[in-house]
């Protein structure tokens, strides 16, 4: 007696083992990345070796000059010129940007012409023109335009070397700051203006409460970057006889020609320190204003390092 095949239980299909699950994961190799890293490491080591073993750099003289009183005095002049120029340049830039945004065609034309003119003139040429300003106008007077003057002053008494340097840098800085501020204002979406208008906010309140907070997100990081250029550009005030950091180093180099290279290295290191401080400030300013644009603010380098150390400790 044979069993009915139709009553037999159905055969269970055996599943094949997943080769991906059974095998081990092989990390993707990056041979060219390792090769590039090795080349860069060798070149960096070569540069550092030449920097510290070449006697021509005279590192003993570098240490002698680095904190000398004359160098520190020049550094303070650089900081003073840069601080005043940054403040006055930003103030002028804000005024020019608002004039450029004005519906008045005369204000727009004056602002556009100023920005176009002072961005076209090399800074050293502008400083030399101001240095010779007293030859063009020996006296300046206060009074009615095109009319009599009530008081007059000798130009040489008003324009000292420090004043000429600050005015020249401020005039140049204002032209670039105006474009930074204007681009920041224009970066605010038009829908924000329309929404503020629909809420019945006045123009002044719209600017203070809606436009300015969003525009600062673009203005502040860009202007801090502009300050880095201002620090370096301040070395040009040497051409108007103002002994800033670079001017002091040049003067000492003329007196001690054998120490010219160490003195130039002193100026280089101080400029690197100043711009590095501003770069760190720029990083944290950008990170602060990114909170409104990113859901998660990226970690700082110190936070990354701490996370890496913690990961290595527990692995």
UniProtKB/TrEMBL annotation:
Q: Which InterPro entries match?
A: AA_ABC_transptr_permease_3TM, ArtM/GltK/GlnP/TcyL/YhdX-like, MetI-like, MetI-like_sf
All copies of domain ABC transmembrane type-1, residue ranges: 75-282
Q: Which SUPFAM superfamilies match?
A: MetI-like
Q: Which Gene3D superfamilies match?
A: MetI-like
PROSITE patterns listed in its UniProt record: ABC_TM1
Q: What is the protein named? A: Polar amino acid transport system permease protein
Which keywords are on file for this protein?
A: Amino-acid transport, Cell membrane, Membrane, Transmembrane, Transmembrane helix, Transport
Spell out the CDD domains in the cross-references: TM_PBP2
**Principal cellular location given in the protein's record:** membrane
Transmembrane segments annotated in the record for this chain: 34-53, 74-99, 111-131, 215-240, 260-285
């Amino acid at each position: 007696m044979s069993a009915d095949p139709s009553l037999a239980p159905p055969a269970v299909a055996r599943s094949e083992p997943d080769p991906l699950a059974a095998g081990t994961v092989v990390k993707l190799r990056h041979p060219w990345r390792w090769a590039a890293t090795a080349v860069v490491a060798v070149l960096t080591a070569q540069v550092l070796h030449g920097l510290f073993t070449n006697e021509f750099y005279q590192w003993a003289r570098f240490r002698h000059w680095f904190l000398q009183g004359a160098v520190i005095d020049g550094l303070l002049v650089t900081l003073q010129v840069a601080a005043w120029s940054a403040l006055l340049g930003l103030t002028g830039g804000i005024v020019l940007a608002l004039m450029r945004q004005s519906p008045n065609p005369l204000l727009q034309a004056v602002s556009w012409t100023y920005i176009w003119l002072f961005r076209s003139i090399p800074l050293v040429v502008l400083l030399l023109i101001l240095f010779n300003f007293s030859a063009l106008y020996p006296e300046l007077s206060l009074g009615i335009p095109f009319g009599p003057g009530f008081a007059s002053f000798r130009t040489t008494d008003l324009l000292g070397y420090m004043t000429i340097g600050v005015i020249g840098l401020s005039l140049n800085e204002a032209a670039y700051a105006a474009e930074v501020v204007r681009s920041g204002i224009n970066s605010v979406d038009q829908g924000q203006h329309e929404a503020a208008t629909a809420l019945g906010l006045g123009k002044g309140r719209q600017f203070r409460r809606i436009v300015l907070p969003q525009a600062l997100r673009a203005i502040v990081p860009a202007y801090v970057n502009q300050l880095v250029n201002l620090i370096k550009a301040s070395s040009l005030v040497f051409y108007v006889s103002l002994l800033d950091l670079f001017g002091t180093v040049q003067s000492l180099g003329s007196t001690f020609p054998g120490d010219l290279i160490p003195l130039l290295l002193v100026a280089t290191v101080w400029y690197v320190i100043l711009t590095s401080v501003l770069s760190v400030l720029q990083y944290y300013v950008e990170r602060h204003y990114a909170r409104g644009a990113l859901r998660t603010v990226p970690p700082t380098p110190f936070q990354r390092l701490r996370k890496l150390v913690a990961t290595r400790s527990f692995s």
